[in-house]
Design brief:
With 382 residues, the protein is an alpha+beta fold. It folds into 2 domains: 186 residues, 2-Layer Sandwich (D-amino Acid Aminotransferase, Chain A, domain 1); 100 residues, no CATH class. The protein is 27% helix and 21% strand. The longest helix is centred in the first third of the chain and has 22 residues.
Length: 382
Amino acid sequence: MRLPRMPADVGVADRKLFQTLRSSVWWLKYEWQAPADLPLSRKLALWRRGFFSKSAILYEFPRDDERQYVSDYTHLVRCWRLNARQSIYDHKLALRAFLLAMGFRQAETVAYLHKDRVLLDPFTPEVRAVRLEALLQRLRGDGSPARYVVKPEASLRGQGLFLLEYRDGRFFRRLGRDTTPFEIAGFEAEMQAMQEPHRPTNPWLIERWVEQGEFWRTLYPETANTMRLLTLWHPDDPAPFLARAVQRIGTAKTVPADHWSSGGVCAPIDLTTGELGMGRLYPSMQRGKNGSDPRVERHPDTGAPITGQIVPGWNRIVETVLRAAAGLPFNRMAGWDVLVDHENVPVIIEANGNGGVSLLQIHGGLLSDPRVRRYYEAYGVV
């Protein structure tokens, strides 16, 4: 459901009323789509304090102090325009161009798809436009087995992303536990089906799979296991700082990605030492259906140890992210997704200007850190 736009000729009072009604409708829509099994009185109390009802389960309220957490209202409404160029983060190709120009290693962009046309090797001198049918020949290469990540160019939470494999002369699509033959005609129909009415066409990207380092393959070999590092830039400071970091680890449910809310594991990273803390699974929103303990010290599929492991090359990872954050003058806050490749080089997969905070706050409220609270207070959002 898309909400109506506000007419340009309304007065200030009418504008505030319109925005209030629009936000209320959006809020109720979200609660309907992601319900938590709580009494209505408890939900109303949470809504008054700016939290979705599911946040009481995610953050274990009231055991933890709500005042130490960035509320959902603060995050989604007040923080959305902190970055002067939010659109750069919303479009993966644009951010990739900035990072490549600054010399940061990136996943190889094999193709950029727009409707029935394809731009091959868009960041190389060999860039060329071809028809969709010619794409498969490029992906076959010399016939050796190959892996690619296919995803919409502008999407949230990995919507539409899947792994494309070429082996034994055939293409296969992998998503979670399912592996199916890949047909270009079916993919073209899928691209059209995901297109929202009356919205600009959302292009797609095809990237070559990045072989991750041994440490991350040990955590779980079938998914790209990325770290999310949150950087904040206080207006009075000369450079951004690292506010929080987590290691995401995929499972059989999430192949080829590591999305926490889809069944992956999230573990906090000590900002000084790079040590992993207790892993967390996404909790059930329904009472009596929590199943196993959401806290895990080992991988639920492989038994690989998580808690107490040290991220190799942690200082280099932090330096890379802080240098990237400082190199974008319009950047005030960003969540950086980083994968370390088989040569132990940090690769910034993407950045989110106002990415989800539940992944970070599942391990404790962001506002418990005085530096973080100072940042949010400087912009008047808390």
